[in-house]
């Protein structure tokens, strides 16, 4: 007979679909797979199963294409088995953030409509709309200590307090107690990233200087567990984008530069110390169509620190992984991912396909969250 501890370790190494199916093997296996500690360990960001999640928007629907492993493929053309389904997204939603948050992601619009989504087990929940709130930005965070997900809602009007919603049964919006007077500096399109229990995003902070008020753009940190805000002075005298990345467990702020890859890394949050990073652009001048199109930096792999670039055409999706330490590029071509959406995507393909690097599978259920919608559509 296999010891229970060994069964636990074996199940942790399975893909999410297999783990879900194996709940039917026995009551013991079902109890193991549904335990909170198993679910938490299964969705660990340090997992070797990190994927590039590709998501497309078509009219008022959001369609999942595939989760593509980041570490398995050398240079090759790949025709993955595509498993599609769709949810009805807010009509005018925005793409916030550069990565999923411990296996979950979300869609939101400026009017307080928020959908939290677990693409692994095909569940989504439409959160209750914050009352009397218009023109807001939302950020999803995860507290690894208490194993809780929270949504932060911030109005662009500074006189309104930020709201917090904890994903769980019988939860509702509440006012954040440790508030600082601020608003997202990029308004509706503000992007953020959650790293080690903190959500980072750019914000306009208002200070009182004598009889007048002064406004500055800086980085805001939100402690998901204690729900505290902290202002971090951004690097001075530099052209910063609205893109944040997870660089070896630290927040990295990308710079606008066409001559190289350049960004700042927050080395010490308490001392507010930043350090610059600079790498040469990896793309040679080759007679290859892939080098003649716009390549967009999407993130950095957690395990190998490779820069992820993508190029989307109507024929294929190209993903380039650049390792600056080895000065090596590997290119993967994915065909057949957007055939059904060709008519809609061809006019604005880059704006309607989103990429989430370092996505880890999660077995977290959203059934107990108010607003859970059990029906999803199989394509």
Task: Walk me through this protein's architecture.
This protein has two domains: 1-42, no CATH class; 49-67 and 84-279 and 351-378, Neuraminidase (6 Propeller). 10% of the residues lie in helices and 43% in strands. It has helices spanning 4-12, 16-21, 27-33, 36-42, 342-345, 349-352; strands at 51-58, 61-69, 76-78, 85-88, 105-108, 114-118, 123-126, 136-143, 148-155, 163-166, 174-175, 182-184, 192-195, 198-209, 212-223, 228-232, 240-247, 250-255, 260-268, 273-280, 296-300, 307-312, 316-323, 328-335, 353-359, 372-373, 377-378. The strands form six sheets. The protein has a five-stranded antiparallel β-sheet. It starts with a helix and ends with a strand. This is F-box domain-containing protein. Residues 1-42 form the F-box domain.
């Amino acid at each position: 007979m296999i010891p229970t501890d060994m069964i636990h370790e074996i199940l942790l190494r399975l893909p999410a679909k297999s783990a879900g199916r194996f709940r039917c093997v026995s009551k013991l296996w079902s109890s193991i797979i549904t335990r909170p500690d198993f679910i938490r360990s299964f969705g660990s960001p340090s997992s070797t199963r990190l994927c590039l999640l590709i998501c497309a928007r078509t009219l008022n629907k959001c369609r999942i294409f595939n989760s593509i492993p980041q570490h398995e493929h050398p240079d090759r053309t790949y025709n993955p088995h595509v498993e599609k389904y769709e949810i009805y997204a807010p009509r005018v939603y925005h793409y916030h953030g550069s990565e999923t948050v411990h296996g979950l992601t979300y869609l939101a619009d400026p009017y307080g409509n928020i959908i939290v989504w677990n693409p692994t087990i095909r569940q989504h929940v439409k959160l209750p709309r914050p009352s009397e709130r218009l023109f807001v930005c939302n950020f999803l965070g995860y507290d690894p200590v208490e194993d809780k997900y929270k949504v932060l809602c911030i109005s662009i009007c500074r006189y309104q307090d930020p709201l917090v919603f904890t994903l769980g049964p019988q939860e509702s919006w509440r006012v954040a107690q440790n508030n600082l007077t601020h608003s997202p500096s990029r308004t509706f399109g503000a992007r953020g990233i959650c790293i080690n229990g903190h959500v980072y995003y750019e914000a306009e902070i208002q200070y009182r200087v004598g009889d007048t008020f002064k406004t500055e753009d800086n980085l805001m940190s939100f402690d998901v567990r204690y729900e505290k805000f902290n202002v971090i002075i951004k690097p001075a005298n530099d052209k910063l984008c609205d893109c944040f990345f997870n660089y070896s467990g630290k927040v990295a702020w990308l710079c606008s530069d066409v001559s190289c890859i350049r960004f700042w890394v927050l080395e010490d949050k308490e001392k507010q110390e930043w350090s610059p990073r600079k790498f040469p652009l990896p793309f040679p001048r080759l007679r290859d169509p892939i080098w003649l199109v716009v390549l967009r930096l999407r993130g950095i792999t957690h395990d190998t620190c490779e820069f992820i670039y993508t190029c989307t055409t109507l024929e294929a999706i190209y993903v380039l992984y650049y390792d600056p330490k080895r000065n090596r590029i590997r290119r993967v071509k994915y065909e057949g991912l957007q055939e059904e959406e060709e008519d809609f995507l061809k006019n604005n393909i880059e704006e309607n396909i989103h990429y989430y690097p370092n996505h880890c599978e999660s077995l977290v259920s959203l059934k107990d969250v108010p607003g859970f919608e059990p029906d999803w559509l199989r394509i």
